[in-house]
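Hi F.,

I've been meaning to write this up properly since the lab meeting, where we talked about keeping a consistent format for the predictions we share between groups. The idea is simple: the sequence comes first, exactly as it goes in, then the structure tokens exactly as they come out, then a line or two of notes. No screenshots and no reformatting. I'm using this chain as the first example so we have something concrete to point to.
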Amino acid sequence: MKSTQLFAAPEAARRDDAKRAARRAPVLIAFAVLFALPLSRDARAQDTDRPDPQFSNTPAPTYVIRGARIVTVSGADIENGSIVVSGGRISAVGASVSAPAGAQEIDARGLTVFPGMIDLGTNMGLVEVSGGAPGSVDSQELGEINPNISAIWSINPGSSHIDVTRVAGVTSVLSMPSGGTISGQAAFINLAGSSPREMAVVPQAALVVEFPRIGGGGGFAAFLAAQQGITQDALAQRDRRVEELRRLLRDAEAYGRAEDAYAKDPKAVPRPETDLKLAALVPYVRGERPVIFRAEREREIRAVVRFAEETRLKPVIIGGSDAWKVAPFLKDHNVPVILDSVLNLPLREDDAYDALYENAAKLQAAGVRFCISTGDSGAHVRDLPFQAGMAAAYGLPKAEALKAVTLYPAQVLGVADRVGSIEQGKLANLVIADGDMLEPRTNIRYLFINGRQIPLVSRHTILNDQFKDRK
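Output, unedited:
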């Protein structure tokens, strides 16, 4: 990622950066002109953050989609209905609606309208070539504790993964940083826009924490760890890291109280010394935003939930391969799970082959809140409907499988008032298809993000058109 200062600088620091950039500008321009040198990576990053006038300053057109089957997800399906899209939002939906004069009409007879799908387990826009090509991986920062790191400022709007993903019907994702104990703050974005600001729905949507745990997974890894005699050392190290995390969260809580006291009576209370890391943690220790913990095994899930209750956090489990084993526990503590392992191999050699295929169905039957994710950095987020389709093939009701990639992720993240279903007032993230969206044979016919019709073009379609006629 870029430097910590760029991610989380307060307004004063940003103004200082702007002044320094202005002083350097004549020198940079002179060198560029004289020697034809390209701008630096930082200069390009600042340039891409300027909104594209053609995209952001032009009002979104008004559309009326007529004659379609509408799968609202949040309510009953409408077999022959219409949707009016105006100002980037759904202004009307129903069996009979009136369209404003001048609205562009889309004849959707024989087609089905779905809400755009949502994936909460990605690094979209942060990783271009995961193999480590220079400059293509920007998903983590140095250090173990980085709550002030905000992924939104490193997202590349020109990533090839974005158009490949959205033409498959995925319109929004949570892009998460990685690395360290506290990786940083994830950004909930729409997959359209020419700058991170245009794409952002919630710039700082959740805190990502790699909860300290002991060694690797089960099977041979656990056996090897025991044989190496590192179990006790690993346990002590884990406990130390958990205590450090607990202490940091308590400091953040105290920092927030000090800030509140100063704001209430600045004359009587001294202003606390600015601490960017503690300031970034305040909304999370107050339970105002979710904290996403990576946990796969049963003991890890239980440890995370107990830790979150002790520190009064708002936890969300990502991974959850063993979540079905602790479903009553998760239900009792009202902890949602982001399942990103539907198509993975089982954790242990003696697990049933379909243990992860059935995970979602067992959580749904137990009443646990959950959603389905690919858990991919970008290249395979387009496979999200197939992950949900596999869960449906192994016991999850089809209607629930669709909700698991639309409404449920929005509810888990707390953005269901804006996305996740087809309702009046929500963002017009719509997918119009010629069949069931979870079926591989289905084709997307129209796509809307933020009320704008998105061309169904990606690197894949371009390469297909380029080479399909070659012999």
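Notes:
The chain has two domains: 49-116+421-471, 117-419.
Confidence is low (pLDDT under 50) at residues 1-15, 17-54, 216-224.

If this format works for you, I'll send the rest the same way.

G.
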